[in-house]
Amino acid sequence: MASVAFNGNPVTLIGTEMTEGDQAPNFTALDTSMQAHSLEDHEGKVRVISVVPSVDTGVCAEQTRRFNEEAANLENVEVLTISADLPFAQKRWCAAEGIDNLTMLSDHRDFSFGEAFGIGIQEMRLLARGVFVLDSNGKITHAEYVPEATEHPNYEAAITAAKETK
């Protein structure tokens, strides 16, 4: 299991760690209109899944803005950003920030994504920070669990993986 800290304090991740080559497990999360989405709803495209603890923090906001900008330039790539924030908070934040190139999903209700991808923080009921790239068949081609949740992911590695994935 990935070793992750939050503000320097080790935390426990629940679920099974995903690695490159694994078939991505299905999950259910809510969009900002409270509609359920599963991974199966987004089949047939390369997907970048950007995972943040909360869009209301500085690093999470920067990460979401960065992937929103990158999404505009990636062909046949869908970007999903997932946090455990309430869908209402995500909707308000996206409207205020002009985020419109990615799909924002909330794992608040079921914590399904957190458990399926092994990135849910047991002690906080938040998601840790990470990035996953999936090919059009759902195979994971890039998996990053950021060791310190308050730091940025490796954007270039994720974008390069998305461009190279079919």
From TrEMBL:
Disulfide bonds join 60-94. The active site is at 60 (cysteine sulfenic acid (-soh) intermediate). One of its GO terms (molecular function) is thioredoxin peroxidase activity. Keywords: Antioxidant, Disulfide bond, Oxidoreductase, Peroxidase, Redox-active center. The keyword Metal-binding does not apply. It comes from the Bacteria. It catalyses: a hydroperoxide + [thioredoxin]-dithiol = an alcohol + [thioredoxin]-disulfide + H2O. InterPro entries: Redoxin, Thioredoxin-like_sf, Thioredoxin_domain, TPX, Tpx_CS, Tpx_Peroxidase_subfamily. Its EC number is 1.11.1.24. Homodimer. Belongs to the peroxiredoxin family. Tpx subfamily. The active site is a conserved redox-active cysteine residue, the peroxidatic cysteine (C(P)), which makes the nucleophilic attack on the peroxide substrate. The peroxide oxidizes the C(P)-SH to cysteine sulfenic acid (C(P)-SOH), which then reacts with another cysteine residue, the resolving cysteine (C(R)), to form a disulfide bridge. The disulfide is subsequently reduced by an appropriate electron donor to complete the catalytic cycle. In this atypical 2-Cys peroxiredoxin, C(R) is present in the same subunit to form an intramolecular disulfide. This is Thiol peroxidase. It comes from Salicibibacter kimchii.
